[in-house]
Design brief:
- The chain has 316 residues and is α+β, with helices and mostly antiparallel strands.
- The chain folds into two domains: 160 residues, Ribosomal Protein S5, domain 2 (2-Layer Sandwich), CATH 3.30.230; 127 residues, GHMP kinase, C-terminal domain (Alpha-Beta Plaits), CATH 3.30.70.890.
- The protein contains ten helices and twelve strands.
- Strand 1 and strand 2 form a beta hairpin.
- The radius of gyration is 20 Å and the shape is globular.
- It starts with 16 loop residues before the first strand and ends with a strand.
- The N terminus is likely disordered.
- The chain binds adenosine-5'-triphosphate.
- Adenosine-5'-triphosphate binds next to helix 1 and helix 2.
Length: 316
Amino acid sequence: MRPRAAAPVRFRNVTAVTVRVPAKVNLQLSVGPLRDDGYHDLVNVFHAVSLFDEVTATPAPRLSVVVEAESGLDIDAVPVGPDNLAARAAAALAAHIGVEPTVQIGIHKAIPVAGGMAGGSADAAGALIACNELWDAGVDEATLLELAADLGSDVPFALFGGTAVGLGRGERLSPVLTRGRFDWVFALADGGLSTAAVYGECDRLRAADGGPVPPPQVAEGLIAALAAGNAETLGKELRNDLQPAALTLRSSLRSTLAAGRDSGALGALVSGSGPTCAFLAASEDHARDLATALSQRAVAKSVIQAHGPVPGATVL
Ligand code: ATP
């Protein structure tokens, strides 16, 4: 049996471990009625895309966080103290194996902050994998997934990667079969949207509407389109119950989505709680044309091309 690490940590002959973690887009985000515990039952089809943060764990006297970013990415809202989700992940793993979290977490961000692409969750997943490796802790995948779920509903998927259905709060994952690759364009907005505020607005709009909220169901047509690798059908099947709330809170997203549809996107939707908008293209060339068209129409702060599915957190 692998010996458990005991304080103080004996580092292997590594000075740093870097892990690459993907952003996600929700291909389906169906939100059930508000539960008594304040959560909603979700059906969440997550899809990992080739837009990556890098998380580096380096031995240090105490837990600290350093954040830098791609040029143009606003990281003012990213905490550098113990509230950073990656720091919380390192602390949770250290507590689990019974060591002090003597590590510096360096985060190189490319995933938009508060953009609905689960950047903070990605960083938490990256920190779990990086520290597990740095500390030679040997914590198995099932336990890492449990620690991840305690940190946040989207963290397990950032470990998992690929395409997956998440049930419950989104953390009970099963892989979804996909064929080939899907090409995407993401329109990044100026400033973020708070996930809690978007859920709150969703509840408010539904209460005002007064109609019953059905339990969420997996969209079988969407699953079939993924299995067939059919981007055209997938484009029509994309759905996000949070979109009306995100559009109410940020009305400029209506023209962003319309510009993508007018420019030939196979599908257009708000990513998660927004404000990033996602556009599905027919091919890499089509995505390039779509990205150019969106940039020219100046409906976003910046435009990024990516593809999915890609693997989850990976040691570099
Ligand atoms: P989701 O799609 O999971 O709802 P999001 O992509 O909209 O999340 P994040 O980028 O994860 O949003 O950030 C949400 C908030 O979390 C930020 O405003 C920030 O205050 C906090 N935060 C904590 N740690 C991080 C981190 N490592 N990177 C980004 N934000 C972080």
